[in-house]
Amino acid sequence: MDRNKFVLYAYPFRTRAERVLWALKEFGYPYEVVRLDPFKGETKTKEFLSLNPSGKVPILTHNGEVLTESLAILEYLNDISTSKKLIPTESKAAYKYRKVVHYGLTEIEPYLWVAEQDSRSRALYTWPKGTYKDAIAQVRENIKPVWEWINASPYIAGDQFTLADIYFYQLIAWSKEHQIETPSAAKEYLKRLESRANFPAEILIQREDL
Ligand SMILES: N[C@@H](CCC(=O)N[C@@H](CS)C(=O)NCC(=O)O)C(=O)O
After folding, report:
1. What pLDDT, on the 0 to 100 scale, is given for residue 173?
2. CATH of 6-80, one of 3.40.30.10, 3.20.20.70, 2.40.50.140, 3.30.390.10
3. How far apart are CA 25 and CA 36, in angstroms?
């Protein structure tokens, strides 16, 4: 195997790995994807647990390094890039970037993840009755500021495309899978992101969903 190549371990279906995939393309790194099916125990094998003891994907390996946590991976890819930067450095713009990412990570993603565990991933988790409905209600409420940010600027953290857009594309796609409605300005935003040269066609939100 080419040691310089990044290897992305991902589920066989839509997941957080899409964030990493898009970032790899944006930065122009060579990579290959290894698909693992959690419902067949493929993320809990001895071999995989030696890479990530939490038994979670995505993980990214590179030159003998094992990287975990999708957002941290994105930021690492940005740090090592010498040709392109997708995190603002000017303090106000950097704050806006961090604000939106931290908001997604604390106020939206946890509820989507719990909803997921009480729906498609129910075979792996056990939640009390009603959890799914309550979690989705919380996503619907907490996603409102996101629609306002999208209304206010062409990209989620301001005038420039950043890693936050990669993150929010996946969060919005995920929430759409749970029937969270997307306002028209957000539909335009998604199309703007999809028209980027490095947008990975395989993560496109189906048009009929919009
Ligand atoms: N915070 C982690 C979450 C990773 C995670 O939970 N990944 C899911 C798939 S998107 C997973 O591996 N689930 C397997 C399981 O829960 O056993 C990240 O952002 O990378």
Report:
1. 94
2. 3.40.30.10
3. 21
